[in-house]
Amino acid sequence: MAVFLVFAALATAVAWRVFQLVKDPRNPSQRSACLCLACAFASYLVAAPVGPGFETVADPGWGKLVQNVLLLAAAYFVMCVYLYAVSDERTGRRRARIEGAALAVVVGVISVAALTAPRSALTSSVGTSDMTVPQVAAFYLTAGLYLLYALTSASYWTRQHARQSPRPVSTGMWVAAAGLLGMAVVCAMNAVFVIVRWQGGAIPKALTVGVALVLMASLVLLTFGFTYAGVRARLAALRVWREHRRIHRQLEPLWRLLRQAYPHSVLKLPGGTWRDRWRAGGVHRRYHRRVVECRDGLVQISTRLQGRGHEGAIVDLGRPEVLAQHLRAAVAALANGAPVSDRAVPLAVPENGDRDTDVQQLVALSQALRSEAGNEREAAC
Predict the structure, then answer these.
(1) Residue 3: its pLDDT value, please?
(2) Is residue 342 classed as helix, strand or coil in its secondary structure?
């Protein structure tokens, strides 16, 4: 189950990054982020158990080499993500080429170590491998030291990017930098463990458990940091989505009354399917359309209200409950050819002209219409 969850999470992350890259294919940071996740996903696939005996996809010996090469590549690309972000394109490419050359040297070293080691030496995990075999120690020590360097550099470039970014992006970047630094500390400790075991020493279990806990905490910080800004933006968008759906429903009594009077004022826009009623774009489009239709209907019906000639009533129209009564009377009189004024009268218009306040004025009027209709039904009963 855990294997499937990790697989699903990585596959989703890769698919999302590919989608982002398709929208902005010339962005080197996006490209590096996509390659980082792709390498991490491929590394997991190579090492993931697929059978009852925890057999892996690839041959155990070759699989260990391929897994570590992909892991080193993922560390390289995560370093490039913010290396590109804090540099101009030319400087970023030059630095990326230098870092790529260093990665190539490290891959060459661990490949030689893996190819010259006894066949069964690299079939077990790093915790159970025999580090007294020089090739095994060189394999894990070289890979670990490169990870230490790459993660430390990535933490540095992430902090640089955080200093140049506004909140909430900078907050997430600082947390991600802390996670990368914690992972670098874990790599440093593992390098020490390899050296100790190479010399024939033993590592206390409590120490290895402690390092594993630090690694888990660092991964949590890294994941939280990289997703913080995006999750916060999605939550803010969700709040706007819910607010627009709520206001759309609240405006229905006013909208229905004005549509009854002026059916031609209803805008004809694409959409209308059940998916469109829940998708963010559809919800926002329907919300803005209803606000415009309500405001347009009020402008047209106001000529009927002006024609009543009750000066005091015109002043009282600033109160939603009074305006609601006059609106219903005006709509009822429309079919009888009520007189039309020369000009429109501003109705339910806020003093400061703010859009949100304007919408709230419309909502107050619509709620007054709903309350009046409810009172009429109670009186009829």
Answers:
(1) 59
(2) coil
Of 134, 123, 124, whose CA–CA distance to 194 is shortest? 134
**Of 104, 100, 81, the residue nearest 31 (C-alpha):** 81
- pTM for this predicted structure: 0.70
DSSP state of 267: -
Yes or no: say if 177 and 79 are a contact pair by the CB < 8 Å rule.
Answer: no
Q: Following DSSP, what letter does each residue of 117-139 receive, concatenated?
A: S-TTTTSS-TTTS-TTSHHHHHH
Within 10 A of 343 (CB to CB), how many other CB atoms are there?
8
At 315, is the pLDDT very low, low, confident or very high (cuts 50, 70, 90)?
A: very low
- The answer to whether the Cα torsion of 58, 59, 64, 68 is positive or negative is negative
- Residue 101 pLDDT class (50, 70, 90 cuts): very high
Q: Using CA atoms, how far apart are residues 137 and 227, in angstroms rounded to an integer?
A: 36
pLDDT score recorded for residue 152: 92
Partners of 56 in beta bridges: 49
Residue listed under structure tokens 């992909």: 70
Helix (H, G, I), strand (E, B) or coil at 166: coil
